[in-house]
Amino acid sequence: MPDPAALRRAARRVLLRNWTGASTVPSHGLYPHQWSWDSAFIAIGLRHLSVVRAQRELETLLAAQWGDGRVPHIVFNRTVPLGAYFPSPDFWRSSTAGAAAGAPADVETSGIVQPPVHALAAWLVHEADPAESARRGFLTRLYPRLAAWHGYLAGHRDLGGHGLVSMVHPWEPGMDNSPCWDGPLSRVEPAEPGSFRRADLDHGAAADRPTDLDYGRYVRLAADYRDHGYRDADTPHAFAVEDPSVNALLIASEHALAAIAGALGADPSPHLARAERLTGALVSRLWDADAGLFLCRDVRAGAPVRERSVAGLIPLIVPGLPADVADALLRTAAGEHFGLGGAVRLVPSYDLRGAAFDPSRYWRGPAWFNVNWLLERGLRQHGAPERADALRAAGLATAYASGFSEYVDPYTGQARGTRDFSWTAALALDLLAGPYTGGDPV
């Protein structure tokens, strides 16, 4: 365990350096704009440094919300040169291509989304200083936006027709390069290699990043969505996947939204009812008892994806998960496929025994700090505090030793990706503040 004061100072330096005046970039080189779920995790950590800055992080993101309720996965900083990141604003063309879907005219964004962690983040930020939250009208202003965001997912993204949210691009679940996407992506004709330039390879080793073939498929899917005006009902969606982590995070955020509604004197029951429906659909549709975890489902193929991803463990954060399901998840997390408490320092993003496992390549095996933060909360919620304590200690030690890296080798803790990564620093601050005690709605 690193010296707490030294860790806090180092994490604070990262977050101050990456603050732009209205929001926080994940990193200045590789990710020079505002990312959706990054900002949610960043706000959770920022609340321990400045509640007002944490509030502003979420307010800035939600100011770019579209009229249909979606929260875009990137909000672009107009001062950053177009060539610094791809796909850039001139690719997405949100203000024109997305006009019919209600894209804002005064800021450029992407047209896809990321996991809905935002209501949970907003509630945790509020809880850090309820008086300051009330003084600034924080929850009053965010509640309708968060409700609209959840409404978009429930109303536009139930592509499978069974009550779960579908993701329509591998970037949307946040685990961009997971082996779970290999099968669904194989049906997508990639964009021509000369039609785009990858800026990510300027900041990271090609061996750690997605392949050119996969990137070409990412570009094709995004371009097709854009060319259909980002309208879900009109887009063929060659890629459509029900992801257990995305739906679990929506359930957690519905519980948080119920708490927010209650704090404002509104009726929490619609949020609790949606959370209950989603939980039932998650278990009935994605739970695999033989695998001992939740599996992604390829909506277009009408079949589960037979790959073990850490996404299948994230439902541990869901309140009210059936006891037999939670117990099986705890066994799977500690088993040979994920190694919690044994073979690894931090839980990997993909099956240690899987054919596609790679401890260095983006989301195909490395351990990520946001995932382990979620699992730490889930372990405590479902009666495994000792394992949670050990994971918390490992997360703090590894975050500090790795220079707050983007991700690490799960076995050795060796830093991978970019350094001084904002959500790593932010979540280290949150873990440092003390173990989750179960007082929150999730």
From TrEMBL:
Presence of the UniProt keyword Nuclease in the record: no
Stretches that traverse the bilayer: none
Biological process according to GO: oligosaccharide metabolic process; protein N-linked glycosylation
InterPro entries in the cross-refs: 6-hairpin_glycosidase_sf, 6hp_glycosidase-like_sf, Glycoside_hydrolase_63, MGH1-like_GH
Pfam families on file: MGH1-like_GH
Superkingdom of the organism of origin: Bacteria
Alphabetized GO MF terms: Glc3Man9GlcNAc2 oligosaccharide glucosidase activity
Keywords tagged on the record: Glycosidase, Hydrolase
Protein family according to the UniProt entry: Belongs to the glycosyl hydrolase 63 family.
Name of the protein in its database record: Mannosylglycerate hydrolase MGH1-like glycoside hydrolase domain-containing protein
